Amino acid sequence: MKRTRICDLLGIEHPIIQGGMTWIANAELAAAVSEAGALGIISPNAAMRLEGDVVENLRSQIRKAKSLTDKPFGVNLPVQIPECKELIDVVIEEGVKVVTTSAGNPALHTPRLKEGGVKVLHVVASVRHAKGAERHGVDAVIAEGYEAGGHNGFDELPTFVLVPQVVEAVSIPVVAAGGIADARGFVAALALGAEGVQMGTRFVATHECVAHQNFKEMIVKATDTGTMITGRKLGPTRGIKNEFTAKLLEMDKRGASAEEILAFIGVGRSRMGQLEGKVQEGEVYCGAIAGVISEIVSAGEVVRSIVDSYSRVVANL
Ligand SMILES: Cc1cc2nc3c(=O)[nH]c(=O)nc-3n(C[C@H](O)[C@H](O)[C@H](O)COP(=O)(O)O)c2cc1C
């Protein structure tokens, strides 16, 4: 298995990161991924009640992960969330050494995280944003194509196109995300110049992930055309096609206003789909790669199967 600058930067064996995932990137998942030699990531609201205290929830998730592994793990901070400053306090107080930041300006929190001894990897969806993140001092960028589950960049660049251009534009390490679920995708990402991969959807369909069983089974059943992008007016988001996306599509077609769409989505729609298992009514973030995922396995098996198949995939080229 290839070692890259990402391994040295993060203190991990294999350059594989489990992406932050709102509501479902829980301590047990992160710890299992880290135990397998990759980097697990906790989301602040993992497994939380809708009205829960996100700051205290993060602290308890971090403590749980520490009780399960001595290996490094990280935290994902979507920088636009109102509690971001308090969440950074928790990260630093608890001694977490890696943060992935997303959905916002890296200038906001990178200096404070770096002063606290935290390595920062920022998620970008264009060359311009990658250059900006490098200028603001992040340690690496995660170049995420619009194959990815969850929120995507407005320009909807695919991973295959985005990664090599970001690699050419910055000198810090680049991690590829979006559309990767196995050793084939891992090798392809490295061929494009990435020094690691981040996967979300593949890690949802694992025993340790707190996602509802209905969500995991939906991933296993999904075909190549099982996901779609909605919300182009507000922020493109990839999820499983269901009654919720059909309603959004219908609203888009008749030109519904952003206000009407927001009112329909309401609060906690993705929690409903992902954690409560109401997979028709709720929003279910999911990557287009779901079509290649055919079973629910342990998080360690996901990492080990990439490590074990790596040489065979390279030899077959
Ligand atoms: C269910 C789900 C929730 C996600 N939530 C977040 C999030 O809260 N913050 C974030 O930075 N990325 C989020 N992502 C993106 C992942 O971290 C990761 O970059 C992405 O899933 C990679 O693409 P893939 O789904 O093709 O593996 C989410 C992805 C999924 C599938």
Structure overview:
This protein is 41% helix and 15% strand. The chain is an alpha/beta fold and 317 residues long. It folds into two domains: 5-210 and 294-315, TIM Barrel (Alpha-Beta Barrel); 213-288, no CATH class. The strands form two sheets. An eight-stranded parallel sheet has the order 1-9-8-6-5-4-3-2. It has a three-stranded antiparallel sheet with strand order 7-11-10, covered by helices on one side. The longest helix is centred in the C-terminal third of the chain and has 17 residues, at 299-315. Bound molecules: flavin mononucleotide. The site of flavin mononucleotide has 30 residues, from strand 3, strand 9 and helix 9.
Quick structural overview:
The chain is of the alpha/beta class and 317 residues long. The chain has helices at 5-10, 27-35, 54-68, 84-93, 110-115, 127-135, 159-169, 183-191, 201-204, 213-221, 243-253, 258-265, 269-274, 299-315, and strands at residues 16-18, 40-42, 73-78, 98-102, 119-124, 140-144, 150-151, 174-177, 196-199, 227-230, 237-240. Flavin mononucleotide binds at residues 19-22, 24, 43, 76, 78, 102, 123, 144, 147-150, 177-180, 198-202, 204, 274, 285-287, 289.
